[in-house]
Design a protein that fits this description.
The complex is a heterodimer of chains A (422) and B (123). Among the domains of chain A are: 3-110, no CATH class; 112-234, no CATH class; 371-422, no CATH class. In chain A, 74% of the residues lie in helices and 0% in strands. Chain A contains 21 helices and no strands. In chain A, helix 9 (184-206) runs parallel beside helix 11 (238-251) and helix 17 (353-363) runs antiparallel to helix 19. The radius of gyration of chain A is 26 Å and the shape is elongated. Chain B has one domain (2-113): Dimeric alpha+beta barrel (Alpha-Beta Plaits), CATH 3.30.70. Chain B has helices spanning 21-40, 90-97, 101-105; strands spanning 2-9, 43-48, 56-61, 64-69, 78-86, 107-113. The longest helix of chain B is centred in the first third of the chain and has 20 residues, at 21-40. The two termini of chain B are 26 Å apart. Classes of the chains: A mainly alpha (422), B alpha+beta (123). At the A-B interface, helix 3 and helix 4 of A face helix 2 of B.
């Protein structure tokens, strides 16, 4: 409940004080105050307004304290470098800066949506390292605790805390501001970076890249919350809606993706009655709406591919020809060997394993793909279907050597056993 | 905020033969970027530096001054000039940085200047 207001609250307070770290702490304190007061006093009529109001007060207190300390520091500097003319001008310019930000806060109360967009653009600023963008977005926009983020990425908490602190300091010291980008082209670029972060959070949760647990639900949930929030802020951006549709259509399969022992269950073998029908319907409705805008993009294409699966009652009935065509389109936006390999698999399903293997072998020499266990698994699968058992076993073993996740390793081992190999 | 751009290039000192057309072209490009900055009122100062092989690095350890002939670190690119700008935020500074020819072949490191009072030169 409090988490639903976190994004808006941090955005509003950051706009007012111009400091992300101060805003985040203030909102955290306001949430703690709410946890203490609301059960006794009752939830206020406007919980978001209450939180923002309390957080703003707390942030202002901190800023005033800092300002007093700043004045003391300035005085100390004057002791060190006695030059009345220079110190005077600099001090007044600093004071001018802070009073300007207070003014904008008082007049900018209506700018909630702009501030929320500004906050996520700030957290996903390209001057920050990608892993810092992800961590900061989860903390400042989603309201996940440092411990939860560290846990989700299997990183020690102090390491994650350091990463967050470094990112906040860079935002403050380098002068990254909560501001709408200067031009529409800039906004498009920056938005693409934001969508990348949201997608990264989801894929990390959906198919954990390290560790024993295959799905980390809290990351999937966080990504969907982010995508929902963005789509509310930018309802006319089909790629934003496309991303939300993609996440819903993919996450709808969550319950069917792992077996009773936590092992990976492939799409073809999933019990489709376990798919979340409401989520699928929501995703399809959103995708249809996005496509209507006539501005296709990679997320809409990914979502369309996911929809091909979700509309089919079983793996055999899937429109693989359509999926192969969609991957063909996707290559225009993502000219990567991974997309080409996925197209090969769709072609194999539509036209037979031999046709798929031709494409797969053509891209299989790419150095990036050779390190990708899934390529070897896909090859092994096609070879097995062609009756080339020895080559299939060799390909599965090649995949095992590339350090797949525990669940994938388990899956590959079972496949090898089914071939009569160990 | 004040932003200092460190213009890193592989050249030891101003690049190439001053009589060559490439040199003239490069300097025209620098001139263009600096003129745009001046026009926008953000340019505070700028200058090229002499070659990094003429650098002297000073380190004081345990009260002893140790001098090294050359730059602080042996890397492929070295600072060959600087630009000091007054910008509203990092986004504005990064836009200017991308206009500087050093960014096209070498790199431009963007740093924020801490707002404090340095001693003024005697008048």
């Amino acid at each position: 409940m409090l988490r639903a207001h976190w994004w808006a609250a941090v955005a509003s307070v950051t706009r007012m004080v111009g400091d992300l770290a101060v805003a985040e702490d203030a909102v955290q304190e306001a949430c703690l105050a709410a946890l203490v007061q609301w059960p006794g006093d009752g939830t206020p009529a406007d919980p978001r307004g209450w939180l923002i109001g309390v957080a703003r007060h707390k942030a202002l207190d901190v800023v005033r304290r800092e300002a007093r300390r700043g004045a003391k520091e300035a005085a100390a500097m004057r002791e060190l470098y006695p030059d009345p003319s220079s110190s005077h001008s600099s001090e007044s310019s600093q004071r001018g800066e802070s009073s300007e930000s207070y003014e904008s806060s008082e007049t900018g109360l209506g700018g909630g949506a702009d501030d929320e967009l500004g906050l996520i653009l700030m957290c996903c600023h390209p001057a920050l390292a990608p892993e810092a963008q992800v961590a900061l977005t989860l903390r400042c926009v989603c309201g996940l605790s440092t411990a939860a983020i560290a846990g989700a990425f299997l990183i020690p908490e102090p390491t994650m805390a350091k990463r967050l602190t470094r990112a906040r300091n860079k935002i403050r010291d380098a002068g990254i501001r909560l501001r709408r980008p200067a031009s529409e082209a800039d906004l498009a670029d920056r938005l693409a970076a934001v969508l990348r972060v949201v997608y990264l959070v989801f894929t990390e949760g959906h198919k954990a890249s390290a560790g024993a647990v295959l799905v980390r639900g809290e990351l999937c949930d966080a990504a969907i919350r982010l995508a929902r929030g963005l789509s509310a802020l930018l309802p006319d951006e089909p790629e934003v809606t496309g991303l939300l549709a993609l996440l819903l259509l993919t996450d709808a399969r969550r319950a069917a993706r792992t077996g009773p022992g936590g092992e990976l269950v492939l799409l073809a073998d999933q019990d489709r009655s376990k798919w979340d029908a409401a989520m699928v319907a929501d995703g399809e409705r959103l995708l249809t709406g996005a496509l209507r805008a006539g501005r296709p993009g990679p997320y809409q294409l990914h979502a369309a591919i996911a929809a091909c699966h979700s509309t089919s009652p079983d793996a055999e009935g899937t429109d693989w020809r359509q999926i192969a065509a969609l991957y063909g389109e996707l290559i225009r936006y993502e000219p990567t060997p991974v997309v080409e390999a996925n197209r090969a698999i769709a072609v194999a399903m539509a036209e037979g394993p031999a046709a798929g293997l031709v494409i797969l072998d053509a891209v299989g020499h790419h150095p990036q793909l050779r390190r990708w266990p899934q390529l070897h698994v896909a090859r092994a699968d096609l070879l097995a279907r062609l009756g080339r058992t020895e080559e299939a076993a060799a390909a599965y073993r090649a995949a095992l050597e590339l350090d797949p996740t525990a669940a994938e390793r388990d899956f590959i081992t079972r496949r090898l056993a089914a071939l009569g190999h160990r | 905020m004040k932003y200092l751009f460190l213009l890193n290039t592989a050249d030891d000192g101003p690049p190439g033969d001053p009589a060559s057309p490439e040199y003239a072209e490069l300097y025209a490009q620098y001139g263009k970027a600096l003129a745009a900055m001046q026009e926008a009122g953000v340019l505070l100062d700028c200058a090229p530096l002499t070659g990094w092989s003429s650098a002297t690095t000073v380190r004081v350890r345990d009260g002893e001054t140790i001098l090294t002939d050359g730059p602080a670190a042996e890397i492929k690119e070295q600072c060959g000039g600087y630009t000091l700008l007054e910008c509203a935020d990092l986004d504005e500074a990064l836009r200017w940085a991308a206009m500087i020819p050093a960014a096209w072949t070498g790199s431009v490191e963007v740093r924020t200047v801490i707002n404090t009072q340095a001693p003024q030169p005697p008048r």
